[in-house]
Amino acid sequence: MAYDEGLAERIRERLGADPAISEKRMFGGLAFLYRGNMAVGVTSDDLMVRVGPEATDTALVRPGARFFDLTGRPMRGWVVVEGAAVAEDQALGAWVDEGRAFAASLPPK
Predict the structure, then answer these.
(1) CA gap 51, 74 in Å, rounded
(2) With the C-alpha atoms ordered 35, 57, 14, 11, is the resulting torsion angle positive or negative?
(3) Beta-bridge partner residues of 75
(4) Residue 54, CB half-sphere, CA atoms under 13 Å: how many?
(5) Which CATH number is associated with domain 5-104?
(6) Cα separation of 33 and 25, whole Å?
(7) Are 54 and 60 in contact (CB under 8 A)?
(8) Which helix (H) or strand (E) segment is 39 a member of?
(9) Count of helices and strands (H, E) across the chain
């Protein structure tokens, strides 16, 4: 499955040259990992964000957000944000920062 390379590039720009960030093809798209833990990613034209189980409900009320669901069973702690909802750099930045912050709260892999 193809993913939006423009969105991936915008995420790269937001994350900067942090050596703790790596990229990996996952879920049919591209994932950005912080110290080995997935923070955000791109699938199709959408943004995947790892927000953590406690923040899921709050994240789901934000514009364009829905459960991350690959198997018919939504994954708590993860959301997908439609591409149109992150068209502005400020909106994308908020999600990317949230995903990176959650990944940073986990032990390195």
Answers:
(1) 14
(2) positive
(3) 68
(4) 3
(5) 3.90.1150.30
(6) 11
(7) no
(8) strand 37-43
(9) 3, 6
Question: Is the backbone of residue 24 left (phi > 0), alpha (psi -120 to 50) or beta?
Answer: beta
Rounded Cα–Cα distance for residues 39 and 104 (Å): 8
Phi, psi for residue 28 in degrees, rounded to 5: 75, 15
Amino acid present at 3? Y
Here the tokens at position 9 are: 């590039």
Report how far residue 26's alpha carbon sits from residue 70's, in angstroms, rounded to the nearest whole number.
Answer: 12
**pLDDT tens, N- to C-terminus, the chain (109 residues):** 589 999 999 999 999 999 999 999 987 899 999 999 999 999 999 999 999 999 999 999 999 999 998 788 888 899 999 999 999 999 999 999 999 999 999 999 9
**Token pair listed for 72:** 């018919």
pTM of the model: 0.94
